[in-house]
Amino acid sequence: MPYDVTVIEHPLIDALLTQIRRAETKSGTFRRNLHTISRLMSFEVTRDLPCRDIEVTTPLATTQGSELIRDVVMIPILRAGTGMLNGIIDILPEAKIGHIGMVRDETTCLPRNYYCNLPEGIDDSDVLLIDPMLATGHSSAAAAAQLKAHGAKNIRFVCLVACPEGIKYFCEEHPDIPVYTAAIDKELDENSYIIPGLGDAGDRYFDTE
Ligand code: URA
Q1: What is the pLDDT of residues 124-142, one digit of tens each?
Q2: In terms of residue numbers, what domain contains 187?
Q3: Is residue 180 a contact partner of residue 155, using CB atoms and an 8 Å limit?
């Protein structure tokens, strides 16, 4: 693969993802599984975050430890990104959180930004941009461009399911941003849904139509 894409392979992730692909799976299981998958993925996504050595004093002695060099900022793309955020937040409870709102124009399939609220210090943070479905790549690429316009330099993109078209578009727009996904599916359909995918991630998570 000519792009910086990591497929996080793990039997638990695969089994949980298989359950939420199933059309009959209800929103309760969908939510729970998406949270667990995101939490499991976040170990790989954050594996090489830069750390520095520090000294720490326990109740009994002084020893060497480490801490993250930079703050972590998480940016879910509204609205489906909040589903993954709710899982990742468990392992990064101190992270700052911003939001970017994108809607897809169902006629043109192009993204329109309707909301942007980013925390201070994004330029000096490790930023996780989060959206479960890397479909056309247009929304996530536009969101990444918005983060860069606000000074973000260390960005990682985290999704659940990607497809070749979305990977190509996103990675060619942002070759400096590594992509982490649990699966790469076959293709996009004529409505820009991922096949086989899991349907509309936001609708399935929020139980809307
Ligand atoms: N967004 C979704 O929620 N699902 C897709 O398959 C594509 C975009």
Answers
A1: 999 999 999 999 999 999 9
A2: 5-49+71-206
A3: no
Q: Which of 18, 108, 112, 189 is catalytic?
A: 108
Active-site residue, 203 included:
yes
Show Cβ contacts of residue 36 under 8 Å, excluding neighbours closer than 6 positions: 12, 16, 87
Quick check: is 116 in a domain? yes
Whether residue 100 lies inside any domain: the answer is: yes
**CA-203 nearest atom, ligand 1:** 3
* Closest atom of ligand 1 relative to the 193 alpha carbon: 6
Decide: pTM greater than 0.90. yes
Residue 60 lies in a domain: no
135 Cβ inside 6 Å of ligand 1: yes
CATH (domain of 42): 3.40.50.2020
CA angle 107, 168, 192 (to 5 degrees): 25
